[in-house]
Structure formats: C-alpha cells, structure tokens
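Q: Convert this sequence to structure tokens.
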Amino acid sequence: MSPLLSTLRLAAVNIDGVLLNDTFTPVIHRMVVAHGAAYTPELEQAVLSQQRVAAARTLGAAIGSTATHQELLQAYFAEREQYVRENPVRLLDGAVSLLRTLRSAGLEVICYGGLDRSHFDRHLGAVSSLFAEPGYISTNDFRPGVREIVRDRFGLGYQEVLFIDDVAKVAESAKALDVPFIGHPSDFEYSSQRTLMRRQGVRHLVRTLYEIDEALLRTVDSESARGVCWRDGPEPVATLAPARPERLS
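A:
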C-alpha cells in the first residue's frame, strides 16, 4: 500500500493525448472538413475511443462515403501518416515527470490505448521501466476499456484505479463505474473534449501534466476513499471489490 495514498493502487494512463501528442483528433477533423461535412462535438464523441470498425462506420456516415469500413480505415491511417510526417509523434512536456510522480506516490502504472504494442515500444520504450507489467494494454477490442482494465486485467476494485485520459468517452465510462478520473483534454483548437468532460461532471481537468502532482493525487485518493469521485457527499459509497491479488501482474 502507498505510504501517501489510502485507496488508489494503480494508475492507468492513456498513451495518445496524455503521454504523447494527439495525432488522432486533427486527422479526423481534416478528413471531415475535406469532405465538406460539419465537424461537431457529437461526431467527435462518436468516433474517439471507439473500436476501429465502429469509428469507421460513424466517420463514413458523416462524410457520406460509400467505401467499406476497411477502405475508410486505410484512408484514415494514410492521412495520419501524412499528418505525422508534418507533426511527429513526441512525448508531451511533463510526461516522464508524471510517470515518476505516480510512481513516487506508490502507484503501479500501466499505459493503454487503441493502437498495438509496437506504438508503445517505439515511443515509450525508453521509459518502459517506469511501468508495471504488462506495461501497455491495447484496448481496441474492448473500448473504452475501463471495466476490463480494472476487473479483468488486474482484479481490483473500481475505487482503486485512477484513469488519466484525454477523451470524454472514457470519462463517461469511469463515471458509470464510479472510477477515479483526471482529464487532460487535447489542446487541438477544434477539439470538444474539454467541454464534453465538463458536461460529464469531471472534477479534475488539467491543461498540463505538471498539474497532476502529489497534492492532486491525495485529493483524488481522498475522494475515492469516501466514494465521492463523481458525486458530493460525506458518506462512502459501498463497492464490492474482489480479493486483492498479491501482485499487479
């Protein structure tokens, strides 16, 4: 158990948009606008943090495309490759500091996202020692992945895992399960994630990763212990947590 925190045991940190720069929202926006369609908060919400086939279906409908889901995905990733050539994938300022802060608070840390493991190895391999096993979890097959990471992968109680993400869809899932959450919405000028997170009632929204410090972690830990991460009230909310495993692997 952490010497600083009473309840939190694990931090699950999203890869793209939290540890790495957002290279997805700008591409979605570019494709939608290029086809003369309206880029709306509702469309953004329906595409981000979804399984690829579902995202392609929604995107295709929005732009009036008759292409297959596979063709749309190929077009999307080709567009992303072009975008990344112009805007290379990079660690966000404060990313390594965040990981060290989480570790120093006594938390195990894992990373998750929609791409496969090679994306993590390529861009975060140099700091892989800061993550607990398995290091990275691909959530494409079970988006957004909150329940699956907490229960299926680590056998923890919902109040014991902190999620840090840039997408409101993940916040929505965390809220439904009463899971602690910190939002780091994209700073892309056309992104609606900050507004959507506010609508979800996210308490802790940060603009820089440096804002996630020991004081904020203590606050979230206290809220989780009292069962008030997503609601006001002095009384704890009863949760059924499975027996704790001896280790988090």
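The beta strands are 10-14, 108-113, 136-138, 161-165, 181-183.
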